[in-house]
Design goal:
single chain; mainly alpha; 23 helices; 58% helix; globular
C-alpha cells in the first residue's frame, strides 16, 4: 500500500520534467586568449559576450564546479528552470502592457498583468513551500526515496502562477468576451457550419487559459514543445483540464471553464497520462481531475486579485479609503497589532500594513484548507476553490462585492472596455476574413498585406479551424497598445 501511495504522490505532484532535472549542457572552448592561434582562439571578451547572451535568454548559467556540486548533492535546479523560461519569454514580457484592472491606464501605480503575475507567483511560491513542507513530513518517503524537497513544490506553483495569465488577450477578460462574441453573434457566425461543434465552441467561448496552454506548449520556429516546461508545471497551470464541450457539465470547480483547445488535446492527454491525472470524461469528451497543485495556483490568484485589485481601487480614488480600511480590518482583526497600526501616520502605510496582513492571513488559510482536504484532492473529489472553504469567505465576498461595484463596473473601466471591444472585433474580422480568402484561393493583395502581420505563420495547407485559431491566437498575444495601433492602421489612420 505504501509503494502504491508513493507512486500516486510522485506522479500527481511531480511526474518527470520534459527535460532532465539532473543534467546540464556543458559549453567547452578550444583556447582562451592565445593570439597565436586565431582560428581556434576565443577571447575573454567573446566569452563574456556569450555568457551575457545566454543569461538574457531562457537559460540558467552556472560554473561547471557548481553544477557538479548540485548534482552530487541532489540539489540541482529541478523545476526552477520552468520559472526562468517563463520570465524570459516574449509572451510574458508582453503582459507589461496588458490590462489587469483599468484598460489603457496612464496611472503608474495601477497593476498590469505583468505586475499582477509576479505577485501571484510570490504568493504561489509561499503556498507551495508551506504545503510541500507539510506533505514531506506526512509522506517522508517522497524525500528519502525520491529526493524531493519542499522547495520543489514552491518552484512548481511559482512557475505555474507566473504563467497563469500568459494567454489573456488585450483588455482583460472583456477581450476574451469580445473575441468570443464575434464568432457567436458577429460576422464569425458564418463558420458555425464549417467547423465541428468542439472547434466552433473553442472560438465562441475563447478562453485565455486554453490560449495560455497553447503558448506554453506550441512548437514554434522549429522549437519543439514551446517553452519546454515540466509536465508538473503544465499540470499545475491547467486549472480547467477539459475541452470546451460539454460546457460546464457539473458544479465541480474544474468545469467552471475549459483549459485546452482542440489543437492541443492530443498533447494534453500525454501530459495527463504522464502525471497520472484521473479521468472524468468518457472516450468522446476529454476531461480530467485537476493536478493537486492547481488548487494552490488558483488560490494565489484569488488572494492577489481580491486584495490587490481592491488596493488599486483605493489608490485610484474609486473606493473611499476609510471605508475600504474597515473592510480589510474585518479580514485581519484576529492578527492585527492595534498599537502598530495606530502608530502609522500615513494612510498609505496603514493600507500597506493591512494588505500584507490580509495576504498572509489568506495564505495560511489556503494552506490549512488544502492539507485538511488533501485526500479528497488526490482522489479528484474536492470540487471547490480553496478559498470557498475559508472561514473568511464572508469578508472576502464583501471585498469582492465592493470591487465589482466600484472598480470593475466603474465608468472609466466600462468606457474603455467598450472601446477595447470594438478594437478586437475589428482586428479579428480583418484577420479571419483575409485568412479565409487565402484558404479559398480568392485572396486580394490587401489580404496578403494583412497576413504579413502574421509573419507568414498561416499556411494554405492548414485547416480552416487551425487558421482561424492562429488568427485569434495572434490577436490575443498583442498588447493593449499594439492592438490599438493596429486598429488605427486597419482603419487607414496614419496619425
Amino acid at each position: 500500500m505504501k509503494s502504491v501511495l508513493t507512486t500516486i504522490l510522485v506522479a500527481l505532484y511531480f511526474s518527470s520534467p520534459t527535460i532532465a532535472a539532473d543534467s546540464a549542457v556543458i559549453l567547452m572552448y578550444h583556447r582562451f586568449g592565445e593570439k597565436g592561434y586565431p582560428s581556434t582562439n576565443t577571447t575573454i571578451e567573446q566569452l563574456e559576450s556569450h555568457i551575457r547572451e545566454l543569461k538574457s535568454g531562457p537559460y540558467t548559467v552556472l560554473p561547471v564546479l557548481e553544477i557538479m556540486a548540485h548534482i552530487k548533492n541532489g540539489k540541482f535546479l529541478r523545476f526552477e528552470v520552468d520559472y526562468d523560461r517563463v520570465i524570459f519569454s516574449s509572451a510574458f514580457r508582453s503582459l507589461q502592457d496588458k490590462t489587469q484592472v483599468i484598460p489603457l491606464s496612464q496611472t503608474s501605480f495601477v497593476h498590469t498583468r505583468l505586475t499582477h503575475s509576479l505577485e501571484v507567483s510570490v504568493v504561489g511560491r509561499s503556498l507551495g513551500r508551506q504545503v510541500g513542507k507539510a506533505i514531506l513530513e506526512k509522506h517522508p518517503h517522497l524525500h528519502k526515496t525520491h529526493g524531493y524537497q519542499f522547495n520543489d513544490f514552491g518552484a512548481i506553483v511559482a512557475a505555474a502562477a507566473l504563467a497563469h495569465d500568459i494567454g489573456n488577450p488585450p483588455f482583460g477578460h472583456s477581450g476574451e468576451k469580445a473575441i468570443g462574441d464575434y464568432f457567436l453573434n458577429g460576422n464569425g457566425k458564418r463558420y458555425k457550419e464549417k467547423l465541428t461543434p468542439k472547434e466552433y465552441q473553442d472560438l465562441v467561448d475563447f478562453e485565455g487559459n486554453a490560449n495560455g496552454f497553447k503558448i506554453l506548449t506550441e512548437t514554434k520556429n522549429g522549437v519543439e514543445g514551446g517553452l519546454r516546461l515540466s509536465y508538473a508545471t503544465l499540470g499545475a497551470f491547467t486549472k480547467y483540464p477539459k475541452e470546451s464541450l460539454p460546457k460546464k457539465p457539473t458544479n465541480h470547480i474544474a468545469d467552471k471553464k475549459y483549459g485546452v483547445f482542440q489543437s492541443e488535446v492530443t498533447f494534453f492527454n500525454e501530459v495527463a497520462t504522464e502525471l497520472g491525472l484521473l479521468k472524468r470524461g468518457d472516450d468522446t469528451n476529454m476531461s480530467y481531475c485537476r493536478h493537486p497543485l492547481a488548487y494552490l495556483v488558483e488560490a494565489a490568484d484569488d488572494i492577489c486579485y481580491t486584495i490587490i485589485d481592491f488596493e488599486d481601487g483605493i489608490n485610484l480614488g474609486l473606493i473611499e479609503e476609510e471605508f475600504a480600511l474597515e473592510y480589510l480590518i474585518n479580514l485581519v482583526k484576529d492578527t492585527i497589532n492595534t498599537n502598530k497600526y495606530n502608530n502609522l501616520k500615513q494612510s498609505s502605510d496603514r493600507l500597506a500594513y493591512l494588505r500584507s496582513l490580509a495576504i498572509n492571513t489568506l495564505i495560511t488559510e489556503a494552506v490549512e484548507v488544502f492539507l485538511e482536504h488533501e485526500e479528497e484532492i488526490l482522489k479528484g473529489e474536492f470540487s471547490q476553490a480553496l478559498l470557498d472553504k475559508s472561514r473568511y469567505q464572508a469578508q472576502i465576498n464583501d471585498i469582492l462585492r465592493i470591487s465589482i461595484e466600484k472598480i470593475y463596473q466603474s465608468k472609466e473601466v466600462v468606457e474603455k472596455e467598450i472601446a477595447g471591444y470594438k478594437v478586437l472585433e475589428t482586428l479579428i474580422d480583418t484577420f479571419t476574413t483575409s485568412v479565409e480568402n487565402v484558404l479559398n484561393g480568392n485572396e486580394r493583395h490587401y489580404d496578403r498585406l494583412i497576413l504579413k502581420n502574421f509573419n507568414n505563420v498561416i499556411s494554405e495547407k492548414d485547416s480552416l479551424y487551425k487558421s482561424i485559431l492562429t488568427a485569434c491566437h495572434y490577436v490575443s498575444r498583442l498588447t493593449d497598445g499594439k492592438s490599438l495601433q493596429l486598429f488605427e492602421r486597419v482603419r487607414g489612420d496614419f496619425k
